[in-house]
């Protein structure tokens, strides 16, 4: 019988696994130390902490995984299990996330116990303790966000102790999360670069503390944590939104916490699924029409209100983040002119005319929505096994600004500081500054509910395909249900696209209505027979809490009960 994550954590704490180092990821000791002696030296503790910088615990954050479970994502022939209502306690990623998160927590606990035994008598020991407590807070915050009450332990546990462990209420876990973050804020340096390697610092802890406080509706805690990061002036918005995600370095002033990637060190992301078919990608997964419709026009109005919007060219006159997230038709990506239109039978690839495999008139497997992800795309993805070395961004400064604004809105602190934080983000999209109000559509002060909705719409377009919308939909009451009430629509088949072109109805046959949530309604176009419905989306009322893994519940001898309905 398979061991549960809690039992595996107990085994893990008993026999400490060797880690790889963020500084030297191929570090492998020539001999296996015994469980009784490992972590007996600071060097060994450091190696253990380094393991928390590998990408295995961040399966939810990497390769756009959670975006697939939102309305920002389209797939050629399926809807992922959250928006399709097929999630269950036996779903593979549920088990993997649970196991990897507890593995990371167990590592943190063992590190902290080892440091206690060694004594906190050096700056390095305090720094390593601060890192371990920061990571422990991060992973427990993930657990309570997704599952609510969970098994909770802050020391190494035995297998028998694991078998006897039930679920601890969120209210009893949250103080430890805040305490761990506070310890990290107090004991980590402002800049934590060791031997030329970037590590978490006190502002990573403050930023992530803000995130869980916002999720738990602790608005004052969230506001103050975000303000501490803002007031530090350690971070700023990168001046070019699109280039920010093509910059594979982490030291760009905006990224606060990232996980590095390297093909050579076997820590990279397979991106063939997301690339154009014309360059031998698969074009299976792409940004959705729902997301495309969410960007305002350059006058700051939604597309159904702006005279600037043209459904025949929905990329024109849009918030610049639109064409930095989507590859606009006619633009060059991967050395190829991207054009999904029915009449584009050939396109230029590296300056030569080739068959256009990204138009449905030429290739039945072309992207159903005729969209392609530009955000973060690199020409280097075309080489070899089509792997991305872009860092996995856990949190960046724009998120801190918008979380600060959100917390203040929820506190009804509608002031210039709140408004400035939002407009800083909006202005950067236009490559200008907040005070240059003629160069971008600055947001004006409004009532609390209007500001709340504005921030939520802003978050969608600012963090599109960065893994944040899934968590935002979970924490904003009613929003996931609203998002999944819209089915997944796309272009019709080959003959239908030819008819669209003939009738002058390509790209869209009309302008979808946008509701107050910033969500588009394409159903009237489908009802008129103009577009296709690929698959339905369905909201599962058992959300927002996810199911606990079946195997953990099954062999817990009744100590662990699943969330309601699961």
Looking at this protein, list some descriptive labels:
globular; two-stranded antiparallel ribbon; mainly alpha; 16 strands; 38% helix
- Major sheet: size, sense and barrel closure? 2 strands, antiparallel
Structural class: mainly alpha
Low-confidence stretches: 6-35
Number of helices: 19
The overall pLDDT, averaged over residues, is: 91
- Morphology call: globular
Give the end-to-end Cα distance, rounded to a whole number of Å.
22 Å
The percent range for helix content is: 25-40%
Number of extended strands: 16
Sheet with most strands: strand arrangement = 1-6
Calculate Rg over CA atoms: 24 Å
- Give the amount of beta strand, in percent: 5-15%
Any overview of this molecule?
The chain is mainly α and 566 residues long. It has helices at 5-14, 42-50, 92-118, 123-147, 159-163, 170-187, 202-215, 219-232, 241-246, 289-294, 320-325, 397-410, 416-429, 448-462, 469-475, 479-483, 494-502, 523-527, 550-554; strands spanning 73-75, 193-194, 197-198, 255-259, 269-270, 285-287, 332-333, 336-337, 346-349, 352-355, 387-388, 392-396, 488-490, 513-514, 520-521, 532-535. The strands form 8 sheets. It has a two-stranded antiparallel sheet. β7 (332-333) and β8 (336-337) form a beta hairpin. The two termini are 22 Å apart.
Brief summary:
This protein is mainly alpha-helical.
List the helices and strands and how they pair.
Layout: H1 5-14, H2 42-50, E1 73-75, H3 92-118, H4 123-147, H5 159-163, H6 170-187, E2 193-194, E3 197-198, H7 202-215, H8 219-232, H9 241-246, E4 255-259, E5 269-270, E6 285-287, H10 289-294, H11 320-325, E7 332-333, E8 336-337, E9 346-349, E10 352-355, E11 387-388, E12 392-396, H12 397-410, H13 416-429, H14 448-462, H15 469-475, H16 479-483, E13 488-490, H17 494-502, E14 513-514, E15 520-521, H18 523-527, E16 532-535, H19 550-554
Antiparallel strand pairs: 1-6, 2-3, 4-12, 5-11, 7-8, 9-10, 13-16, 14-15
Helix pairs in contact: 1-3, 2-3, 2-4, 3-4, 4-6, 4-7, 6-7, 7-8, 7-12, 8-12, 12-13, 12-14
């Amino acid at each position: 019988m398979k061991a549960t994550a809690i039992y595996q954590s107990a085994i893990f704490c008993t026999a400490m696994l060797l880690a790889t180092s963020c500084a030297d990821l191929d570090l492998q000791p020539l001999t296996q130390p015994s469980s009784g002696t490992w972590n007996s030296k600071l060097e060994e503790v450091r190696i253990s902490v380094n393991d928390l910088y590998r990408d295995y615990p961040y399966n939810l954050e990497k390769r756009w995984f959670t975006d697939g479970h939102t309305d920002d994502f389209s797939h050629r022939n399926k809807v992922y299990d959250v928006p399709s209502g097929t999630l269950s306690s036996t779903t593979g990623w549920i088990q993997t996330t649970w196991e990897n998160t507890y593995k990371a927590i167990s590592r943190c606990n063992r590190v902290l116990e080892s440091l206690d035994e060694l004594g906190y008598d050096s700056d390095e020991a305090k720094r390593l303790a601060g890192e371990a407590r920061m990571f422990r807070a991060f992973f427990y915050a993930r657990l309570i966000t997704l599952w609510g009450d969970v098994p909770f332990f802050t020391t190494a546990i035995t297998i028998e102790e694991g078998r006897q462990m039930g679920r601890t209420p969120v209210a009893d876990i949250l103080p430890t999360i805040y305490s761990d973050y506070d310890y990290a804020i107090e004991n980590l340096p402002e800049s934590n670069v060791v031997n030329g390697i970037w590590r978490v610092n006190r502002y990573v802890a403050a930023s992530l503390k803000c995130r869980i406080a916002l999720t738990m509706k602790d608005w004052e805690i969230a506001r103050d944590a975000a303000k501490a990061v803002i007031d530090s002036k350690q971070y700023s918005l990168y001046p070019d939104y699109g280039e920010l995600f093509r910059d594979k370095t982490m030291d760009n002033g905006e990224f606060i916490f990232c996980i590095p990637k390297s093909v050579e060190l076997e820590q990279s992301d397979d991106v063939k699924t997301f690339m154009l078919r014309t360059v031998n990608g698969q074009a299976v997964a792409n940004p959705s029409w729902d997301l495309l419709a969410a960007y305002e026009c350059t006058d700051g109005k939604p597309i159904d209100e702006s005279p600037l919007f043209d459904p025949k060219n929905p990329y024109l006159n849009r918030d610049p983040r639109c064409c930095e997230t989507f590859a606009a038709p006619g633009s060059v990506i991967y050395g190829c002119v991207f054009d999904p239109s029915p009449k584009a039978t050939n396109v230029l690839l590296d300056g030569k005319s080739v068959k256009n495999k990204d138009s449905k008139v030429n290739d039945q497997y072309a992207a159903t929505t005729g969209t392609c992800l530009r955000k973060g795309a690199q020409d280097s993805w075309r080489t070899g096994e089509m792997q991305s070395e872009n860092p996995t961004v856990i949190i960046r400064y724009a998120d801190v600004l918008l979380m600060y604004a959100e917390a203040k809105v929820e506190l009804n602190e509608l002031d210039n500081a709140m408004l400035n934080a939002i407009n800083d983000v909006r202005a950067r999209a236009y490559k200008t500054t907040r005070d240059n109000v003629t160069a971008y559509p600055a947001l004006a002060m409004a009532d609390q509910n209007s500001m709340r909705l504005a921030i939520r719409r802003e978050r969608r377009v600012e963090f599109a395909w960065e893994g944040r919308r899934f968590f935002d939909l979970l924490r904003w009451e009613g929003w996931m249900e609203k998002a999944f009430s819209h089915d997944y629509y796309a272009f019709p088949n080959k003959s239908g696209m030819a008819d669209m072109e003939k009738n002058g109805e390509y790209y869209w046959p009309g302008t979808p209505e946008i509701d107050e949530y910033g969500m588009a309604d394409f159903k009237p176009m489908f009802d008129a027979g103009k577009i296709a419905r690929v698959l339905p989306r369905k909201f599962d009322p058992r959300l927002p809490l996810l199911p606990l893994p079946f195997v953990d519940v099954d062999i817990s001898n009744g100590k662990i009960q699943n969330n309601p309905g699961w």
